[in-house]
Amino acid sequence: MNPESQTQARRAKAGGAKIIRYRGVIKRYGDFQALAGVDLDVHAGEVVCLIGPSGSGKSTLLRCTNGLESIQGGDIEFEGAALPREERELRAVRTRMGMVFQSFELFPHLTALANVAEGPRTVLAKDQAEANRRASAMLAKVGLADKAPNYPSALSGGQQQRVAIARALAMEPDVMLFDEPTSALDPETIGEVLNVMKQLADEGMTMVVVTHEMTFARRVGDWIAVFDSGRIVEQGPPAQIFDAPTTERTRDFLSHLGWTG
Amino acid sequence: MTFDWSVVWQHRDALIAATGTTILLTFATMAIAVPCGIVVAALRLYGWAPVRAIATAYVELFRNLPLILVVYWAFYVLPIMTGLGLSPLATGLAALVLNVTAYNAETFRAGINSIRRGQVEAAMALGMSRMQALRRVVLPQALRRILPVLASTWVSLFKDTSLVSVIAVTELAYVAMQIRAQTFRVLEMLTAMAAIYWLLGYPQAKLVDWMQRRFAVTE
After folding, report:
1. Residue pair A234/A226 in contact by the 8 Å Cβ criterion
2. What is the pTM of this model?
3. What is the ipTM of this complex?
4. Whether B91 contacts B75, CB under 8 Å
5. What is the chain A residue with the closest CA to B118?
């Protein structure tokens, strides 16, 4: 397939609906420009993987998406409306975006079940029974129904990250943001987390994934954006990025990772 | 030198009542100083700049003044300032609360600061407000971490209540000293006082040790 027909295939799968639209996004920390004008579209039902060297701005873009970081220039649109700046409106947007962190950030004082029930309970004001029912269903979905009464400290890294995914899913978000979800994991538990993510993708969840797992990006990603120094140096379907990269920077980055296709 | 320990038994009712006052003072002080400490800590952490400055000034003032001075100050200055004729017990309680609140505020502030930023971000990513994140995520974890510190403060406070004897609060130290003055049984009364403080204080200290083990944070 040539790149144009791949792009068309992408649109067809997504039904053309853009869920997130980044235009000229600029983010500065003092004198440091973390994002130097990023343009990217995320369509409904699509898995967009952000790859690139550390410090290239991938995670920053993700954190700007749900307003954990504010932007200094450009626009981010979510479901057709500019990301609000006002705190209350921003909170309403966040309930529709699930986020999974590199360091899990489960609440250590709560059991796995209570972690997952916390969002529905506190933010959506569901009653305890309804919140727990939803939490049980989500834990079952990530294959951890039997770990409901366990505290995070009694779970492996992979299990903790799956609980964190369940916690985000319990809010029934329209899009899931993954910030290097497997970078803090032991190699033997990475697979179980990626499998859950693959399953989500297969179910049609819209996902933006910052990752160093090139195999995952290639197999599961519908669209790949390669970052360098706060810019997207190349974006396209995985076949283009991994087999026929059009920029020297992408080739460099992939060869540094030992990527051979 | 002969000892007459019967003097302790003869005054048992007064000593028991005084011990009750000491325990009451400890409980009452903590019951007020814990919520006040949380409020002062929250003002220092999240308050509007001038409010933050006032909270900081309060903490630094009372943390660095000898408690006995605060007790005297409360006795002489509070009635003038407030126009209220407070009882010695209420005055002593006020002095203790002012002092312990300052300590608790620092303890809470340190506890809140010890919780990783990522925890608040995880709460906010779910759509929680800062207040909800503080109440549901940060404070429950911070409380566990600082419980042993609060317990140590409690044990110190239990002993420090003796300082309000200087303004005639009829707690254990004051009453024991009064009996000593009336009977001239110095050694007996001091020993009895020491025994009561120790017997009550030792289990509390052991409880603190137990809490430190029980609530050790596992992440």
Report:
1. yes
2. 0.83
3. 0.91
4. yes
5. A105
